[in-house]
Amino acid sequence: MAGTATGIYPMLYALFGADGKLDKGAHEAQIEACLRAGVHGLAVGGLASECNKLTVAERRRHVEWTLAMTAGRRPVSVTISDNTVEGQIEGVRHAADLGAAWAVLQPPPVKTASEAALIDFFGAVADASQVPIGIQNAPEYIGIGLSNAGLIELNRRHPNVSILKAEGPALYIGRLAEDAAGRFELLNGRNGMTLIDDLRAGCSGCIPGVECSDVESRIFELWQAGKQTEAEALFREVLPLLHFLMTGIDHLLCYGKRLAAKRIGLKEVHDRGPAEAPHPFGLQVLEAWSRDLGPL
């Protein structure tokens, strides 16, 4: 399967130093670990990148570091979370100018916005973009999204919207794939918790977290090679961990980031508050389900 958005694109964490600022050295270590792990691309700027806790300048810096450190070794997807059309156009242009392969647009957090208004919003940004555009359709986490019919209408009016990060259960993904009939390259998120069923439904890949990206990349490659039984067996081994981590975004940021840091070899995790604090039993569960994972 070849396309713009194919394979495992882990969403990079925002890693902070003891001074509370983004830690450039830790970010580079994270990128190098992901590349060693065999990922097919990198993603930055989404919910796991704590876009809601970064200033505009910090979000832009995170993108700049990622593209400079990756240096073309893998394609990079940049999620744009600005809440105005003008801000998103600027964010997409900034990412594209630095070499991003594609951009993903988040909807502005206006839960009462109509579907027609969202289509107009996304369409205006897509029309100004020089790279393929994806939509993060994640009402469970963002609180707003488009119906299958709305996504298809958006693509009909603006063919540059050709990728979907459509986060949801496997049955939702299957129905969306059926309705869209090949209009989109389709990826799920949710930390890869339904990766096998997503691939079975026709997804071109997944945008999970960093912490299990090596295992998920291997599962994807086994599936693509026609080794479904081996892919399913490996998925079963990691599924309890993925299920624990994906209790919610704040939970993932607490425990997933700590597991990623351990596997990367980072000594400490510094949270930017407000943030969920790790509980001793939570750390015990994390250790139990991840004890067989070595360094990334």
Describe this structure in words.
This protein has helices spanning 24-36, 56-70, 85-98, 115-127, 139-142, 148-157, 170-180, 195-201, 213-224, 228-245, 249-264, 280-290, and strands at 7-8, 42-44, 76-80, 102-105, 133-137, 161-166, 185-188, 205-206. α4 (115-127) links the parallel β4 and β5. It contains 12 helices and 8 strands. It has an 8-stranded parallel beta sheet. The protein has a single domain (7-290), classed as Aldolase class I (TIM Barrel), CATH 3.20.20.70.
- Report the end-to-end length measured between terminal Cα atoms: 26 Å
What is the C-alpha radius of gyration, as a whole number of Å?
A: 18 Å
What's the oligomerization state?
Answer: single chain
Q: What would CATH call the architecture? A: Alpha-Beta Barrel
Number of helical stretches of at least 4 residues = 12
Mean pLDDT: 97
Provide the low-confidence segments as ranges.
Answer: none
Annotation, overall tally of beta strands: 8
Biggest sheet, in brief? 8 strands, parallel
Order of strands side by side in the largest beta sheet? 1-8-7-6-5-4-3-2
Shape: globular
Write the CATH homologous superfamily. Answer: Aldolase class I
Q: Approximately how much helix is present in the residues?
A: 40-55%
- How much strand? 5-15%
Number of domains: 1
Short description:
This protein is of the alpha/beta class and 296 residues long. 49% of the residues lie in helices and 10% in strands. The chain has a single domain, classed as Aldolase class I (TIM Barrel, Alpha-Beta Barrel).
